[in-house]
Design a protein that fits this description.
By secondary structure, this protein is mainly alpha-helical. It has one domain. 62% of the residues lie in helices and 4% in strands. It has ten helices and two strands, in the order H-H-H-E-E-H-H-H-H-H-H-H. A two-stranded antiparallel ribbon has the order 1-2. Helix 8 runs antiparallel to helix 10. The longest helix has 24 residues. The chain is globular. The N terminus is likely disordered.
């Protein structure tokens, strides 16, 4: 597991906004709350949008192939318990996103990104709660479908700004996933 868990988890703050998201969600409102997969997963897409824009600006399309040691994470086991298809993971995630994880991790860990780390902590906890709750009732849904739906929903809610940033959205989501920050762990 990455030290990122420790970095973003040190402040111990609870974000009351994320606890109130479901209570404040109104499906007829075009506000900042996104619902996915038939209103089963609801989250504040604007919070993630801000981080995606930063990642796009700072990391862009660079494909540095620095390696991150993921030997402590049994990704095959994680994929099995989360119903993530092996083919998609091998052909898309490993090829498109693994080469960028090191650069993303270095960016997130910068001292000047302390505020970003705190925002990520809140987003990750909220998103993971909602994904886990969804998985309990939808065990047949492939995990990549959940992440692709989250990505498409963020884009559709902010189309003009986000239409060219699907790669960065999925990069963030798969970084969270491969570092055991979202999805089932056991």
């Amino acid at each position: 597991m990455s030290n990122f868990d420790n970095t973003i988890g040190q402040n111990g703050k609870n974000n009351t906004q994320t606890n109130n998201i479901t209570n404040n969600y109104n499906p007829t409102n075009n506000g900042s709350f996104s619902s996915l997969l038939g209103s089963d997963i609801v989250f504040d897409h604007n919070a993630l949008k801000e981080i995606i824009i930063l990642v796009h600006k700072k990391i862009g399309e660079n494909n540095h192939s620095l390696e991150i040691d993921r030997s402590s994470i049994d990704i095959d086991k994680k994929n099995t318990i989360n119903n993530h298809s092996k083919s998609y993971f091998t052909n898309v995630v490993e090829k498109d996103f693994y080469p960028c994880f090191s650069q993303l991790e270095n960016f997130i860990r910068l001292k000047e990104n302390k505020e970003l780390q705190e925002k990520l902590e809140s987003i990750i906890k909220d998103l993971n709660r909602r994904i886990l709750a969804f998985q309990e009732d939808n065990i047949e849904t492939k995990f990549e479908k959940i992440l692709l739906d989250i990505s498409q929903n963020i884009i559709s809610k902010n189309y003009t700004l986000m239409k060219s940033k699907e790669r960065q959205i999925l990069l963030l989501l798969y970084y969270f996933y491969t570092n055991c920050l979202i999805g089932k762990k056991k």
